[in-house]
Design brief:
The structure holds 2 protein chains of 2 kinds. Chain A is 0% helix and 55% strand. By secondary structure, chain A is mainly β. Chain A is globular and about 45 Å long. By secondary structure, chain B is mainly β. Chain B has no helices and 11 strands. Classes of the chains: A mainly beta, B mainly beta. At the A-B interface, strand 5 and strand 9 of A face strand 5, strand 9 and strand 10 of B.
Chain lengths: 113, 114
């Protein structure tokens, strides 16, 4: 079967660093994405890894290890506005190029003062 | 401003009624998607369309129907056959600029049953 596993909840304090892990088991793999969703809002794209290694975008970084079927999102200098749900998503089709994503269940991050 | 517009924001369905959720995009994207999100859950794919006049079933298509007559529009109909329609519905379109597979989402429609 296809599955993505991520922790359901994470709590951290303002200014700290937090890491949200994602392990996946899919029939194909063509990239790992991360999306942020504030309560009741639209998911927004944060980062994308197609190859192994670290991608950095401001306070957010994302890492991928294809051999371990594992990735993580790293949030630095946490701010109160970072309180949201974070979803990892795998693109599993290559040649079909449908762009279909399989989403994890989401990790709720609560940032405390 | 370019983006995805979903309407209405809230929708109520009566027993045995079909309802249609609107999704319009002005991003000039070919591919569009419909997802269902239940409380505390991830997004599950209902239908997707890669090009005008073509669409494919996703993982949970039963009780739903779509059309893609224009590039900009991808409406979703929740039919009376969908026995548990209460959920948050999200529409998205895809960009492949820069080699990244990025989906852009609308603000969603929250559907409830009366």
């Amino acid at each position: 079967g296809q599955s993505l596993e991520q922790p359901s909840e994470v709590t951290a304090v303002e200014g700290a660093i937090v890491q949200i892990n994602c392990t996946y088991q899919t029939s194909g793999f063509y990239g790992l994405s991360w999306y942020q969703q504030h309560d009741g809002g639209a998911p927004t794209f944060l980062s994308y890894n197609a190859l192994d290694g670290l991608e950095e975008t401001g306070r957010f970084s994302s890492f991928l290890s294809r051999s371990d079927s594992y990735g993580y999102l790293l949030l630095q200098e946490l701010q109160m506005k970072d309180s949201a749900s974070y979803f990892c998503a795998v693109r599993e089709d290559g040649s079909g190029n449908t762009g279909k994503l399989i989403f994890g269940q989401g990790t709720t991050l609560q940032v405390k003062p | 401003d370019g983006g995805i517009t979903q309407s209405p924001k809230y929708l109520f369905r009566k027993e045995g009624q079909n309802v249609t959720l609107s999704c319009e995009q002005n991003l000039n994207h070919d591919a569009m998607y419909w997802y269902r999100q239940d409380p505390g859950q991830g997004l599950r794919l209902i239908y997707y369309s890669q090009i005008v006049n073509d669409f494919q079933k996703g993982d949970i298509a039963e009780g739903y129907s779509v059309s893609r007559e224009k590039k900009e529009s991808f409406p979703l109909t929740v039919t009376s056959a969908q026995k548990n329609p209460t959920a948050f519905y999200l529409c998205a379109s895809r960009s492949i600029a820069g080699g990244k597979n990025i989906q852009y989402f609308g603000a969603g429609t929250r559907l409830s049953v009366l």
